[in-house]
Write the structure tokens for this entry.
Amino acid sequence: MSSRLLVISMRVVLFFYALVIVVLSLLPGPDLPNVQLSDKAEHAIAYAGLSTLLVAGINLRRVSARSLALALVIANVFGIGLEFIQPLTGRTRDVFDMMANFTGSVMGLGIGACFVVVLGMFFPNLKTIRPVRVESPIH
């Protein structure tokens, strides 16, 4: 598998994972699947996965403080945003859900960092897709 395909695949998985979180977060309470875990554990696990994928999706080449901070901010803004939208779907906003999301996000940073390091061992020439810079004709 080429490094470009790996990066694209990681970002596609991240997109669909986030979409699943959106759907589950906005379903009415009675329609949620029963997985025999506490609500807070479900939140922590979901956001650990999200921030793991974010760390990998931001930069598959190496772990940096910038990529970890960015993953943490994105995951938590995403979670807080969903908590504020939930009352529109008949669910309640819960600050403890936000705290569980944050806890899971922090755990996911460590998992994501380990994932990126291990992936670097298997793909030593891994290159991250960078946006193309367009030079302005006006100087």
Observations:
- The chain has four helices and no strands.
- The chain has a mean pLDDT of 85.
- The two ends are 41 Å apart (CA to CA).
